[in-house]
Amino acid sequence: MENAKDKGKARAKEKEKANEKAKAKPLDKANSKAITIGEQKFHSLNFWRSATPQLDFSLWEDLQRHISSIRGESLYSGCFQVIANFRDPYPLAVNGGLLVLSFFQLLELYVYHLTSSCIKFNMVTRLVYDSIVKQVSCYGERHESAAVKCAIMRIYYKSSGESVQEICPIQKDSTELISNIMGVMATPSVENLNLPRVESLKRKKSRKSKILTSIKRPSSQLEPRPFMVADIETVLLNDVHVPYAIGYLAVYPSLDLSSVAPSSIHIADSFNSFSSLEEESQVILSRFIYDLEIAGRRDPRLRTVYFHNFARFDGLFLLKHLASFHKDFKIKQLIREHRLYELKIYLGERHLSRFRDSCTLLPRSLAELAHTFCPELGFKGSINHEAVNISNLLSLREEYVRYLRQDVLLLGGVMRKAQETYFFKYHIDVENVMTMSALSLCIFRTHYYEPDLFPICTLTKNQDSFIRRGFYGGHSDVYIPYGENLLYYDMNSLYPHVMKKYSLPCGEPFWRNNLTKVDLGTLFGFVEASVVCPKELRRPFLPYKSSDTLIFGTGHFVGGLFFFEKRSGSPFASIISSLYELRKEAKKAGFEAMSFILKLCMNSLFGRFGMDPEGQVSEICSFSRYEELLVQSGFRSTDKLDDDVYLVNYRRNIRHLSAEEWRPPRNLAIQISAAISAYA
């Protein structure tokens, strides 16, 4: 524990004016009636979550003042989108009530009046509304005070040869729109809709679970593989990012980057107009792909190309380019929750290259990482990206090229040092893993896991579903929003401490049903119980889920029992001790980026066992395959990459699948993550 007196005083004074009337009672920005930020008052989402909400008409008027225009447009056969543009000053992400209402208005104006011959709705309208409330709530929690310039909604439908050619709103006045919206919200909501379904518990002994195995330590004769690093620079034209340069560099383990030749650069030659630059950008990307093919033939070990922020930026350009201009290549992509983790390209059966994101391994800014891992290579350069435009690309060409070369060099230095560090310490090549959690798991299974002493089981669908009903996050509330002379307490490495010190559910799982004569103090496992919490308790601490919302409530709520054989100790004690000592050394040396990465390495290990089996995946396919996926219950969204080339996002392992059809991620062990989060 560490104590820092008066640490919160300065920050608290900034909010004194906005909170001078706040009372000392629970305040939760997701559940309170309204939130005050600065001088603006924002309606909370609790209004939309209530059973029979009564709309404050001022919220509707506030929304209409914010909206500058509303329009709809057809994107391609089977898809159109509707947009509500906001005017400055823009609403904020925490302005949940207003944003939710804007989506409801778009649905009522553009969607629900369309004929069923063209669009078939497979969700109850109230469920659509509830889903919007949930998504806006999550967005507000993540982005808080970010300005929202528009609300966009895409509508997908099976065209059957018929498409919506003209997207026009239905003519409704405000009174009719509000009446329709409130009519939907007055219909009963479905409680516990998203809780995993559990089969009967009458069978006391479940089918045998699989034991997670350890990994044989690699031979000391192995050498780390070389790799490539790259970066794309773009210019913003008509609100569209267009690549104008790409640089890349091959990095070998024994290579001294301080004396290496400058990275290769492809840069557009024509800057006369948007269309010419757009054409040039495709040319430089094609040259880059061709160079990778040549490099792979010269040295087959060169297979991985790293970009920093590939998942959310650079990878999007490459994915669309490859789908549109390299149809002789076969593309395999790994996308989870709209993040492009990996992109592989094949020529026939021959694997050419795979693109990955260095951020998933080293999630810090390039400047911080370079300062920690390779200060001898200099500092990250700086340019005003907003000032980059088509008129100065030629005159400032050399400056932009120098900036790009330095970024590529630093990324090469960072990844080389990370590879060297982990290979020396654990004899594991980071080129073989994709994310920090995968690296942590690999280190654990290779060097620290003892399956004979602490066997970790992967569970059946029924077992996983049961425990996941009680897999909760923490309880975070602000009870006194303002104060002076405050004391600030922070637990030092809470989750790693729990992973090291507490007994965890290892061994073969089994069910128990009749517990009427069992001493509860002797139980070790997961419980679904009937709980009565005193209504006078001011700060209840036992949670339950209702419609995917975590509630710490009073009164009566219901929760079966699931048990593991009792083991004393933890399978993670050794790895946590090792990583914690390394982190202490990094902090002492002032290497904050390395300290942060080691912290993530400890924390992400337990999270890896608790991954959601109902993950979102993506598939590049034809239009006919897209229409097949569209009518399946797991469908989420799609993007048209080129003629008859679609990127479809859908969920796998959806909960109605049978146990035989269920295909969870490998090495999933929800009992480990649930126990650690419960202890913490």
Strand order of the largest sheet: 10-9-8-11-14-13-12
Number of strands: 26
Q: What profile does the largest beta sheet have?
A: 7 strands, mixed
Poorly predicted sequence stretches spanning 5 or more consecutive residues: 1-44, 190-195, 201-206
| Helix-residue proportion | 25-40%
N-to-C CA distance: 14 Å
Which structural class is indicated by helix and strand composition? alpha+beta
Overall pLDDT confidence: 80
As for the number of domains, it is 4
What is the number of helices? 18
What would you report as the Rg, rounded to the nearest angstrom? 28 Å
Structure description:
The chain has 680 residues and is an alpha+beta fold. It folds into four domains: 1-22 and 191-214 and 449-574 and 605-615 and 655-680, no CATH class; 31-185, no CATH class; 227-429, Ribonuclease H-like superfamily/Ribonuclease H (Nucleotidyltransferase, domain 5, 2-Layer Sandwich); 618-651, no CATH class. The strands form nine sheets. Strands 10-9-8-11-14-13-12 form a seven-stranded mixed β-sheet, sandwiched between helices. A three-stranded antiparallel β-sheet has the order 4-5-6. A three-stranded antiparallel β-sheet has the order 17-23-18, covered by helices on one side. A hairpin with a 2-residue loop joins strand 12 and strand 13. Residues 1-44, 190-195 and 201-206 have low confidence and may be disordered.
